[in-house]
Structures are given as structure tokens and as C-alpha cells.
Design a protein that fits this description.
seven-stranded parallel sheet; UDP-galactose 4-epimerase, domain 1; single chain; 323 residues; 10 helices; Rossmann fold; two-stranded parallel ribbon; alpha/beta
């Protein structure tokens, strides 16, 4: 039986990844500061631990004496949606917490001779100057330099990418790196300040009264693409099974404005709701996944429609709010 360690297994993507690995026959250990919020973990073993502490990473990075994991998935990070990342008040913690986790993980992955390790980077590493035009953002993997991310979250992701590649060159660490583009889906946070746009919009629409109003940050003309969790995990597993190190985008090429996303969700509700635009943290003006490289290297790219994933997410959040 193949073994896997999922770091950040209490989070949205991590908890779903544990389920997928179990279905594929892995023995899985999950580690996080907390258990998954919306369902019981599927991990064979779940350890509550702070990965910022070197001793914690040392402890969890081997499951038996002298036995290394077949695969390690490093998803643990201090992160959230635009309201968390772009407010400016969380910058120091975001950079410190995530960087120290990755430094610890790389060190012990080498010492325990982990066979293969995945690192989840982000589309936030792409330069702000290439994402000023909402209709024509440039997010090909080779466009990351000269570097100018729009947030400290993006700068930390860029640092950690380079750090893992350095450990690969110097110590032979077998790495895989993907840059996620706005992953969403069921069992993701939808309230509290760290939620992302799809979940936040669903929550606002569900709680709004018919003929009411919901607030959206900015003019709503900023563009994004959003990828449903199932296709994200399919991409991750295909990358891990390939010989390509990355970095590679894992995201959708179905770009929408935030206004279009909001109107889509309003359509699910059968309500008449008006959009009120207010000031708020926005991030870049436009962002969309460029999937040329993933098609070339993996012979695959996400293809599911945004509307299908949003409908599932809307229905799940509606049940959570109304129960």
C-alpha cells in the first residue's frame, strides 16, 4: 500500500485531497492545526500539530522508523480570500507563517528521503503589471518574471517555489509544483473573513431577501477564472504521476467578471436582487489560467463548466445556512 502525508489536511483542498487519496488506495496521514470543519476526516491517522514548529514537522514526516512516505502534499499555508490577503493587516503573519512551514517541510523531506513532494503555489505569484487589462491578463507560467506579485501572499509563494527548486537541485528532492487558480467547491468556508468570492457571493445571495440588495467590492468588472475542487485534485494527481516538476497552472480558462459570477448565483436563487458596488480590497484587475503548458506536459486540462460547480456549491451553502 502506498503511503501519503497531507499537510494542511484540515483545510478545504487538503480535506478533499485526503478523500481522493483514500479512494485510490493510499494509507494517509493528515496534519493540521484543526480538523476539517464540515465533515470527518477520511485520513487513517490525523495529527493536530503546528507545522511552524520544527519538532512537529520532524515528528510527522516519517510514519515508521526508517520508512519515508511515497508522496507528501504540502498544502499548509496562512491564507484566505481578498478580504484577508489584500487588507494589509495580515501581511507579516502570512509571510512568516507560510515561509517557516515550507522551510521546515523542505528540510525534513530531504532528511527523511521523501520519495516525492507536491507544493501548492498560487496564481498570486504572477506580476500585477500583466494583469491590469481585465480582458487580456497574461498568466502563462513563463510570465512570472520579472517578479511583481500584487500581495505579500504572492511574494511568499514565489519565495517558496524557488526554495523547493533549490532543494531539488542541491539535495535531489523530487518536487512537483502547481499554481492554483481560485479553487472553490463544497465544504469550503463561506463566512468569517477568509472566504473567497464564489462562497462569499453564494452566502450573500442566500441570505438576501427577494427585491433586496447585495454588496460587491469594486465595479464588478474585474475578471477571474474559478476551478471546482474535483478538477483541481485531478490535476494534482496527474502532475504527481508525471515526470514534470512544474510549475504548472491548475485552473480554468473560463474567465468571467465578478458581476457575471454574481448574476449567475442570483439566477440560482429565483430572487430579484440588485448589486450595490462598494469600495473594498480587489487584487489584480484581471486573472485567467493559461493552460497551454498543462495540456502539453500532462495531455489534460480542466474542462468542466463553471456554472455546474457553482450550482453544487450554492446548494451546499444553502443547506448549511438553513439547517
Amino acid at each position: 500500500m502506498k503511503t501519503a502525508l497531507v499537510l494542511g489536511a484540515g483545510g478545504f483542498i487538503g480535506s478533499h485531497l485526503v478523500k481522493k487519496l483514500k479512494k485510490e488506495g493510499f494509507w494517509v496521514r493528515g496534519v493540521d492545526l484543526k480538523h476539517p470543519e464540515f465533515s470527518k476526516t477520511a485520513a487513517d491517522e490525523f495529527i493536530i500539530g503546528d507545522l511552524r514548529k520544527n519538532e512537529t514537522v520532524k515528528k510527522v514526516m516519517t510514519y515508521k522508523p526508517n520508512n519515508s512516505y511515497d508522496e507528501v502534499y504540502q498544502l499548509a499555508a496562512d491564507m484566505g480570500g481578498a478580504g484577508f490577503v489584500f487588507s494589509g493587516v495580515n501581511d507579516a503573519e502570512i509571510m512568516h507563517n507560510s515561509a517557516i512551514i515550507n522551510l521546515n517541510v523542505a528540510e525534513w523531506a530531504v532528511k527523511y528521503k521523501v520519495k516525492k513532494i507536491f507544493y501548492s503555489s498560487s496564481a498570486c505569484i504572477y506580476p500585477e503589471y500583466n494583469q491590469m487589462d481585465p480582458d487580456n491578463p497574461k498568466c502563462s507560467e513563463d510570465s512570472a518574471y520579472p517578479a511583481m506579485p500584487d500581495s505579500e501572499y504572492g511574494w511568499e509563494k514565489m519565495f517558496s517555489e524557488r526554495m523547493y527548486f533549490a532543494f531539488s537541485r542541491n539535495y535531489g528532492l523530487n518536487i512537483r509544483i502547481a499554481r492554483f487558480h481560485n479553487i472553490f467547491g463544497v465544504e469550503g468556508v463561506y463566512d468569517g473573513g477568509r472566504e473567497k468570492a464564489p462562497a462569499a457571493i453564494c452566502r450573500k445571495v442566500i441570505k438576501a431577501k427577494s427585491n433586496g440588495t447585495i454588496e460587491i467590492w469594486g465595479d464588478g468588472l474585474q475578471t477571474r477564472s474559478f476551478l471546482y475542487i474535483d478538477e483541481c485534485l485531478e490535476g494534482v494527481r496527474r502532475l504527481m504521476d508525471s515526470d514534470f516538476q512544474g510549475p504548472v497552472n491548475i485552473g480554468s480558462e473560463e474567465m468571467v467578471t465578478i458581476n457575471e459570477l454574481t448574476e449567475m448565483v442570483i439566477g440560482f436563487s429565483d430572487k430579484k436582487i440588485k448589486i450595490k458596488h462598494i469600495k473594498g480590497p480587489l487584487g489584480v484587475r484581471g486573472r485567467n489560467s493559461d493552460n497551454k503548458l498543462i495540456k502539453e506536459k500532462l495531455g489534460w486540462a480542466p474542462s468542466k463548466k463553471l456554472k455546474d460547480g457553482m450550482k453544487k456549491t450554492f446548494n451546499w451553502i444553502k443547506k448549511e445556512i438553513e439547517r
